[in-house]
Every structure is written in structure tokens, then in C-alpha cells.
Amino acid sequence: MPRSPLPIGTWGEITTVVASRDDRGRATKYEANARFRDFDGRTRKVAAWGTSRSDAKDKLRERLKTRVRTEGAAVLKSTDRVAVAIGLYLAEVKNKVDGGWLAPGTLETYGYQTAKNLTPRIGELQLVEATIPRVNTVLVGIKDEVGVASAKTCKSILTGVFALAVRYGALTHNPVREIEPLGKKRRTPARALDAEDRQQWFELLRQDERAVRADLIDISKFMLATGERIGETLAVIWSGIDRGSGLVDCSHQIQRLVGKGLVRREVKTAAGERQLILPDWALEMVNARWTPETPPDSPLFPDSVGGFRDPHNVQKALRSARRPVGSRRRAELGKTLKEFRRAAGMTQEEVVAKLGWRTTRISLIETGRVKVGPEEAAVLAQMYRLARTDRAALLEAVELAGLPSLADELAWVTSHKFRKTTATILDDGGQSARKIADQLGQADTTTTMNSYVGRKVLNPEAARILNEALRQIHEQDQQPSVGPDL
User: Fold this and answer.
1) Which of the 8 DSSP states describes residue 308?
2) Where is the HTH cro/C1-type domain (predicted)?
3) How far is CA 72 from CA 9, 49, 55, 160, 325, in A?
4) Nearby residues of 197 by Cβ (< 8 Å), 6 or more positions away
5) Which of 255, 296, 316, 383 is deepest in the core (most CB within 10 A)?
């Protein structure tokens, strides 16, 4: 029966022989050799020499180990830790990012999730120990303790990690493939700003000095006029705008990367590389922002020193504009309740402890960040031992503060709602799904549309529809643009 071959990357018994002798016949040099099965499957003899048998063996072992490390560096073993495979996988992701195949944010997200959620939970397991039940337990734990979104990201990472292990021969199958979907957040119905919502949104911005200083009016208009994402909007530069025809290059985005700061880079998908035609009113707005001294490589919406703006900061400014905290009556009510609490000689911690409320509830009430119901007000009045007249005045203030403000009504609006609004306007105007997807920079949904329908054709009809639907908003706001106060 033929002898079984050595496993790949291992060696057989080490033997030694005398390699040379001196004039007296004493051994001066020894040769140690062994059969080594290389990574191409062939078995070869490997030798090393030393002044003694043990010295020759030690040198041969070191040579064999070096051969394994260098020639088999990319090979995983089933006994390797999962953390080792994660490291190799992240190196592959980095190569794809460097090659422009993946967005830099992907590497940052994967690195964060592996460090926070995966390595502490599964990193010390051997690959062979990463069974379907164990991996499922890890992912379900992340879902329950951290959230569905993080669990889905971790599942994607582990899918790639174990696929790599299969390719390198450390595993025979990918355990993640057998795990059930981790569940979905309940999808809320798509909602766009209708004509009345749009009027209210811009009225809200015009009444907010911070929103005006942050340039949110023109940014909101531009996003509605194009359907661009906020990072794409902030990446538009003057050299990418034809101020005569209204043609805009929408092929870049702004991202903040760890260790690099704000970076203007190409969008990550071919579908996102597009040119759009601005509606007439939007082109008027853009031209009103231009001056002869404007550098061609400067952004359309600069920060206070003329550089690119951080999408996160603009998102924060948008949240601030629509946040119900702005209610003057609610703020006054909170201040009144704070004075009553102090007059009663109580701290916030003492109040929530006695009432069994959440620790932040009193703080939120006193800063006007949440509504106060009549029942809560009555409980606090009793806690602070208010006189009858003070109690009546408090309940009246609660009723007035409970009246909805414009910010309350628009609390659902986010920057992404602008894209949905653009799509809804185009759909109502009779545009096809293909043309709307091209306007938004979204990929096709079927192979037929991907392979046989012309792509990225300029769509003047979209500009006409958006012009008719949104011109009134612009005409109501002919004030000169104010530089952002960041």
C-alpha cells in the first residue's frame, strides 16, 4: 500500500550525516535533511549544515519554518484563530479600497465593527471551531445587544472572512451561508414633501437665523433640483458647472476619513457618475452665488474659509433647524419648572428617583426638548408643593406649550427626503422609472434594463418638470445668499 503524502507545508523525519572531517577523522561539519512537501504539492529534500548534529537540526528547522512563512504566507490552517483570518480579509478590503473598487468608508466601517463586536466575541476561536451554531450565537448576540444594522454588517464581514478561509483551504464550507436572515427593521412608507410641506420647510428655514447663516436654504433648493445626496451636493465645484446651459458634473462626493479629514473622491458606483441639467430657477440661484473672484476649484457651497463642508456638520444643522427644541413656549415652560424645582430644594436626580422616571427626563423637560403632558405637570406640581395659583398658571403654560409648532410638523424631514421628493415630482410629471433612476444616480434593477437600455442620456425634460414644480419656492426667496456661519 503506497505511503500517504505529507500534508502541504510540513516535513518528515530529520536525519543527520557527517558532511566533512578533519585530518584526524573527526567530524567538523554535519548535514541535516528532511523531506518537505511544498505548496505546489511536490516533495523536495531540504538541507542545512552545522558544526554539530543538534546545530544542523536547529538550522534546518528554522529554514523549514521560514519556508512555510514565506511561501505559505497566504495559507490558513483550520487551527488558526478567526482573528488571523479577519486580518487577512481586511487586508484584501484595503487593497480593493486602494484600487478604487470599494469606498474608503467601507474599510473604516469594517475595521470599527471587527474591533468592537467581532474580535472580542469570536476572534480567539480556531477556524474549525467556528461552527454554524457558534457563529449564529455571535450574530444574534450582536443584534440583541447592539442593533440589527451592526449585526448585518458583522454578518457581511464574516461571510467574507470565512469565504477567504474556504479559498485558502482552512475550511470546507462557509458557516455564515446557513444562517437565517437577522431580521429587518419595519420599513416605513416612503414619504416625500408635497407642495404644502415644501412651503412650510422653506418658511421654517427663513425664520431661523442659524439656518440662514448655515446656507441651508440654497442647499435644500439644490438638492431638490438635482436629487443629489448631501455628500454629492457638497462636492460640486465651480469648474463642474456650465453657468450657461446649467449642466452639472455630479460624479464626486465629500467624505470624512479617519486620519485624512475631508476628502473629495469619485462616487463609488458607475450609476452615480452622471451629469444633470439644472432647472432654470436653480441655475439662477447658482449664478447669483458666483463672483468673478470665485476660484474654479472651489465648492459651490463652501465653509466659512472657502473650503469643503463636512456632510455631518450640514446634517447636524438640518436636524437643528427641524428640531422641536425651538419652541419658545416650551423653553419658557422648562425654565419655569426648573425654578419651581430649585425653590423646592430638590435636584434633578432626587426628582426622577422619587417618581421612578428615566434619569434624563427632568433634564429634557427643563431644557424644552420634550413635551410635557398635563398628567406629568400635575405630578411635578404636587412634588414641588405648588400653591393653587402657581399650579393653575403651570397647567395653562403646559397647554400653550403643547400646541404644535412648525418645527414639530416637519420633524420627519431629513436630507434624504429631498431625494424622494425629487423622484416623486418626476414620477408625477410622467418620467419613466429609468429616467428617474438616472437622475438620482441609482443602479438598474433588472438585467434587461442594465444591458439593453441606453444610460446617462441627458434629460432636459427632468429639468423642465422640476422647474415648474419648484420655481415658486425660489421666487419667494430672492434674498442675497449669506455665507455660512460654521
Assistant:
1) P
2) 337-391
3) 7, 24, 25, 20, 61
4) 410, 413
5) 255
For residue range 50-68, what is the model confidence (pLDDT) as tens digits? Answer: 999 999 999 998 888 877 6
End-to-end C-alpha distance for the chain, whole angstroms? 81
Q: Which residue has the cell 456661519?
A: 485
Of the two residues 329 and 83, the one the predictor is more confident about is 83
Cell of 295: 476660484
Alpha-carbon distance of 447 to 453, in angstroms, equals 10
Element holding 32 (H helix, E strand): strand 27-37
Q: How far is residue 190's CA from residue 187's CA, in Å, rounded to a whole number?
A: 9
CATH for the stretch 204-322+411-475: 1.10.443.10
So what's the pLDDT on residue 75?
67
CATH 2.40.30.110 fits 82-178, yes or no: no
Q: What pTM, to 2 d.p., does this model score?
A: 0.61
Residue 396, CA distances (Å) to 230, 246, 299 in order: 42, 54, 50
Q: Which fold has domain 324-409?
A: 434 Repressor (Amino-terminal Domain) (1.10.260)
